[in-house]
Amino acid sequence: MSRKGVFIAATMAVLMIVAAVYVTFWLVGQPVSEPTAAPETTPNRTHAAAPKASDASEPAPGSEVIPIKLYVPAGSGRSLATEEQEIQLEDSVQKQVRQVVELLVRRSASFPDGVEVREVFITSQGVAYVDFSPELVQEHPGGTSAEELTVFGLSHTLVVNFPVIKTVKILVEGREIQTIAGHLDLTVPYGRAPDYLRPESERSESRNNETS
Amino acid sequence: MIPLRGAASFVGATVRPGSEPNAVTVSGNGKMARISDGKNFVPVAANLVLLQSPARLVGGEWFVPLDFLTKVLPSLATEAVAYRGSDRMLILGADYPEVEVRSRHAPTFTRVFLDSDRAVPLAIEDAEAEAGGVLRVTLDTPFLRTSYRGETNIDDVVERVSLERRESTYVLVVELGEHYGSFRTERRGNGIVLNLIRSRVPTRGTGTAEEFEWDLSEQEQPEDGPGDKEAELDEDARNPNAQIIELPEDYYLPAARPEFPSDPEGPARLRIVTLDPGHGGAETGAEGQGGSVEKGVVLSICRRFQRLLQTRLGIRVILTRDGDRDLSLDERAVFANSNKSDLFISVHADASPRRNARGSSVYFLSYSSTAQNASIGGDDLDFILWHMAQASHLRQSSQLAEVMQEELQAVTGPERVNRGIKQNTFRVLKGATMPAVLVEVGFISNAEEERLLSSADYQDKLAEALYRGLVRYKDIFERGGSADRTRRSQR
C-alpha cells in the first residue's frame, strides 16, 4: 500500500515536472533543463546589477542576486566547508533550488565530472527530489567520506538555504537508487549533515549531540 | 530456503498470485500473508513479520526462509503449528500441553507454580539442590506451548527460573539463591508446586514459622502429598493426535534463528564473527593513485584479522566473500544473520576528493533525523523493518565501534573529530540482527596511506589493532559491562 503511495507520489511528481517544463518552455521560450547562461552564475564573482527596488515593484527574474552558502569538501577532505556565492533571483523556489544544485555540482569536488541535474522537484512536505544523470554513480570515485561529502554536501546545502526544504532525496535517471558508492543508504532522504561532517563553525559544543 | 507451496500445503493454506507480478498471497485460517520477491518482511493480517532472509521467486517457484514456518505459518493454520529445528519436524495440532510457570515470594519461602492443561510426566532432579545450586524439573514432552519467558532476580531463595527446551524434553531450571534451605513439592492439578524454603526464618517483619506452616496448609488439595519427588503421570500425555511432519534433509540451508531479536537472556558468549570485506567483483571500491584498489586491500586485512581471531581466540570467523566477487549490500547482512553471527564487522578503505585526507574511523548505524519522517520517501515498510533489525543492538554496536577505533588510532594516528567514532545510515549495517560496525582503516586516496595499506606489514598491524579491539569488546560483552570501564582501567 505504501509502495503504491510512493508510486502515485512519484507519478504526480513526474507529471507536475512535465507540466512545469511545458509551461516554462511556453513562457520563457527555452527549455528549463538548459542552465541559464547568465554571467551571474559564473564560479568567480557575480556581476549582476544591484536590486533596483525603485524601478519596479516586481523586478524581473535575473535582475537581482541573492547570497547563498554552498557546502563543499573542506581542506581536510573529511568534512564540509562553506563557500559563499550569489545567485540570480528566480521566480520560483523550484528554479532557485535547481540553480543552487547546478552551481554546487559545478563547484564541489564531491560531484564527479559530467554529472547533470535532470530534474528538481519539491513536495509539499518539504522533500526535494533531485534527479541526476547516471554519472553520479558511474563516475563516483568511491569511499565512505567521498560519498558522505556528496550526499550531505547536497542535502545540507539545500536544507540550510531553503527553509521550505526539510530533506533531500537523490534519484538517478528518475529512479530511487540503493547507494551511490556502496555505503550510505539512499532509499532514505537526507537532511542536515551529522556533526562530524559540518564546518567547524556549525558544530555543536557537546560531543554526543548526534541527534538520533 | 523452503518451497512456499509445500509449506503452505502443510496447513492447507492457498497460494495465489498477488496484485503485482513479484508478489504472492498466502491465505488460510481467514488470514492473508503477502510475500514479495526480495523482501524479508511479510505483512500477515495486521502484523508485520521480519524473516531472516528475503523471499525469492526462482524459475516461477517461490522460496521462503525456514523461519517462515514459525513466524508466518501459525497465523495461517487452523491448528497449532510448531517447528522443531533440531529434528526438522513440523508439528500440527494442539494436542500438546500448554504450560505456564509463575513464582510467588513469601517471607519464609518462595513458591514456583508449574501449571499444565493436561497431564505431563514430570521428573525432579535435586542432586544440586543446595544454596547457589539448581533444582530441575523435567517435563517429558517434546513440545509444549507457553508464554513463560523466565524470571530473574526473584529473591535470595530463588534467583532465576527458566523453562528450557532440550532434545526431546523441556526442563524447568530453578537457580537457587544463597538463602535457599530445602524444598518440598506438591501436585496441583496436572502441574506441580515447588516450595523452596528459606534457610533461616527472617527475624524481622511478619515472617514467622507459624505463618509458613499456615501458608503451606492452604494448598489446594495436594494429591500425593508434599515430598513426592517423582510425579509420574498418564502415558497418553504424549500427543497422540498431533501430526508430525518430518521435513526432508534438503529442506533448508541455514538453521533458523529462534527469535527476533536475539534472546537477551541467552548465554553471553562471543562465538561467531562475520567479517565483511567491502565491495568486490565489478565493484572495486575506491582506488588509490598508485593503483591499489579497496576491494583487494580490505580482503587481505580481513584474512589476517580472521587468522588472528581463529588462532588466538578460537572464535569461528566467516567472511562474506573470501575472494573477489560481487555481493550485494543486503546479502552481506543476510549472510551474517543466517550464520547466527554474534558480530558483524564490515571493513573498508576510505577515499576523499581531497588527497591529504587521512586516518581511520569506525562507524555504527544511525537513524538520521530525516528518517523519522518515514512517510516521505523510500519504501516505508522496508525502512521501518530494517530499522528494527539493528536498532536493538545499537548500544553494543557503539561499544564495539569505540574499542575498535581506540585500538586503530594507535596505528593510524589520533582523530580529532569525535575521536573517529561516527554514525551514519549505512545500508550494509541496517539488516544485521547483531552488533555491527563498519571500519574505515585508512584513506586509499592518500598517497602515503595507500602505500602503507598495500604493505603486508601494515596490514598485519591493522589486523592486530582490530584484534585487540575485539578482545576488549569480547571482555565487555561477556561480562555484560560497559565500554567506559575498560577504557578507564587501561589508563
Give a short overview.
The complex is a heterodimer of chains A (212) and B (491). By secondary structure, chain A is α+β, with helices and mostly antiparallel strands.
Structure description:
The complex is a heterodimer of chains A (212) and B (491). With 212 residues, chain A is an alpha+beta fold. Chain A has a domain at 65-197. Helix content of chain A is 30%, strand content 18%. Chain A has helices at residues 2-28, 93-107, 135-138, 144-161, and strands at 65-73, 80-88, 117-122, 127-132, 167-172, 175-176. In chain A, strand 1 and strand 2 (80-88) form a beta hairpin. In chain A, helix 2 (93-107) packs antiparallel against helix 4. The model of chain A is unreliable at 18-56 and 206-212 (pLDDT under 50). Chain B has twelve helices and 27 strands. Chain B is an alpha+beta fold. A six-stranded antiparallel sheet of chain B has the order 15-16-17-14-13-20, with no helix packed on it. Chain B has a six-stranded mixed sheet with strand order 23-22-24-27-25-26, sandwiched between helices. In chain B, helix 5 crosses helix 11.
**What is the 3D shape of chain B?**
flat
Using only CA atoms, what is the Rg of chain B? Answer: 27 Å
Total number of beta strands of chain B: 27
N/C terminus separation of chain A:
28 Å
Main sheet properties of chain A = 4 strands, mixed
Please summarize the sheet with the most strands of chain B.
6 strands, antiparallel
Spans of at least 5 consecutive residues with low confidence of chain A:
18-56, 206-212
Number of helices of chain B: 12
Count of DSSP E strands of chain A?
6
How do the strands of the widest beta sheet of chain B line up side by side?
15-16-17-14-13-20
Shape of chain A: globular
Measured by DSSP, the beta-strand proportion of chain B falls in: 25-35%
- How are the strands of the biggest sheet of chain A laid out side by side? 3-4-5-6
Query: Number of helical runs of chain A?
Result: 4
Helix content of chain B: 25-40%
